[in-house]
Amino acid sequence: MSITARQFLELLRRSNLLTDAELKKGLQACKDSNDGKIPNSPEQIADFLVAENIITIWHREKLLNRKYKGFFLGKYKLLGHIGAGGMSSVYLAEHTLMRRLRAIKVLPRDRVDDSSYLERFHREAQATAALDHPNIVRAYDVDNQGQTHYLVMEYVPGRDLMTIVKEDGPLDYLQAAKYIYESALGLQHAHDASMVHRDVKPANLLVDEQDAIKILDMGLALMDEDHSDLAGLTDKHNEKVLGTADYLAPEQALNSHEIDGRADVYGLGCTLYYLLTGRPPFPEGTLAQRIAQHQSTIPPDIRITRPDCPEVLGSICFKMLQKNPDHRFQSAMEVAGELEAWLQLQGVDMTPAKPDVVQLPARPDKGQSTESVVQAMHAAVAVANQGAIANVQSSIQLVGEYSAVTGNSQVVSDSSVGIGSSRISLGNEIGGQAFQSTSRSLLDTKTSGVWSANGRNWKMAAIVLAGLLLLAGLLVVVVMLTSETENATPDPQSVLLRIEHIVSSGFLESGC
Question: How many Cβ atoms sit within 10 Å of the Cβ of residue 136?
Fold first, then answer.
């Protein structure tokens, strides 16, 4: 049954997707684009709102089908349906206040009445939320709205490995090895927390916008494992199990409750096989036949369908696919170690991403108060002072190491030598707060040995160094002040007052 434009707008209003002000603004924009009239076609109105990012395509389809409820879960507005498994649905959502995107996994309502199922769901969700690894999708919250129970997760834009291979074909072998390496690192983090994924497969490995792996459903696969024994394979669960059977470890099919992390290693090996060949190890046959092949059949050599696959990589994959868990790699970390070593031999840079570079404050704009210049000078001198102290400490450490080699105990008589009570103090007021940096003592005048005999020389050297830093800082201030435009040129007397304030505020304290 068709829907009118008026009915569409009423459903949109009742959906609460937009405030009255937002709806009014959107309709006005729609009128302006249509010669001052609201279109008679609800599809045309909906298409305009989608094009303007006022509603989503998913909202459009629901509203045009007269469905206006169920767009909200707690603090989240659902934006679209992005995935489904045999036992759950996943939605893209936005926090109504923070505007952050999240993925929300909703449990089926027909399982809500099972108290043991819900208890296990909450337990697994709590354990998953405790995981913190760059290669694991984070879980943030678990909640319910009436009979709808859901898990709030990190949203990862990108494609899963199954989709990538289906759309683009088998991967370059270096790229495939890198993805499996990152997956192994994430799995090891979970295994260290006594968690086994149980459903490692290409569809559960996402590739984000930085080309890094994110493991999905960590810890929640157990929720779908009631049917993992052969006796529990019902028609209701066939779709779910058919997808999993291609990557199911032999021991997991027999007794899913007695497995350990080596079952995940097997699933990861099947995934590597798929990435290299475009097919799982045993793609043919019924469900029972495929599970039986995992129990006893050796998979075809990867190089039959992928001649360019290096022998070492094929051997790593073959070891991951051993039927007996004792004959596989005994941990995901072992897999990661083998792949890392091999990738390095291939010239792949395995260095972690560098941290962001900290930007220094920009020079003041013309006409800007010079107070910020003085503050920046104070901070710069403090950093330089700390650097000088660090250099002296480094020198002492080198001398100590040298004495340990040469056996000269007179060079450094104590590992905590210092320079008495001397300190370099920055006691100037910065923004109303005293900024003080007291150095660690460098030499102890009470300590016997060479350092004790020349303690006063070291004191004088520290004082001279601090004085030079002070003069350099004052020079920076004068240069900055004189380089400003005429409109921003301060009174010369005020410049002198500032310099006198710096000098008179106890910038140097010799401690003699």
Answer: 24
Q: Are residues 173 and 123 in the same domain?
A: no
Angle subtended by helix axes 261-277 and 161-168, to nearest 10? 10
| Whether 99 and 230 share a structural domain | no
216 and 326 fall within a common domain: yes
The answer for 353, left when phi > 0, alpha when psi is -120 to 50, beta otherwise, is beta
- Residue 430 β-bridge partners: 433
d(CA 457, CA 308): 69
Q: Show Cβ contacts of residue 200 under 8 Å, excluding neighbours closer than 6 positions.
A: 183, 187, 247, 264, 267, 268, 270, 271
pLDDT value of position 22: 95
Q: What is the pLDDT of residues 269-317, one digit of tens each?
A: 999 999 999 999 999 988 899 999 999 999 999 999 999 999 999 999 9
Confidence tier at 437 by pLDDT (50, 70, 90): very low
Residue 266 lies in a domain: yes
Please answer whether residues 442 and 455 qualify as being in contact, where contact means their C-beta atoms are separated by less than 8 angstroms.
Answer: no
Number of separate domains in the chain: 4
Catalytic entry in 199, 224, 246, 264: 199
Name the burial class of residue 25, with classes exposed (0-12), middle (13-18) and buried (19+) by CB atoms within 10 angstroms of its CB. Answer: middle
For residues 138-143, average pLDDT: 91
Crossing angle for the helix pair 57-64 and 5-15, nearest 10 degrees? Answer: 120
pLDDT (tens digit per residue) in 207-259: 999 999 999 887 555 544 443 433 333 333 444 444 488 999 999 988 878 89
Instruction: For the full predicted model, state whether its pTM sits above 0.70.
Output: no
Full residue range of the structural domain in which residue 121 is found: 71-155
Can 110 be counted among the known catalytic residues?
no
SS3 for 78?
A: strand
Tell me what pLDDT residue 84 has: 75
299, part of any domain: yes
Partnered with residue 153 across adjacent β-strands are 103, 139
Give the strand order in the sheet containing 213-215.
159-160, 205-207, 213-215
Say how far apart CA 274 and CA 510 lie, in whole Å. Answer: 71
Residue 454 has pLDDT above 50, yes or no: no
Same domain, 235 and 301: yes
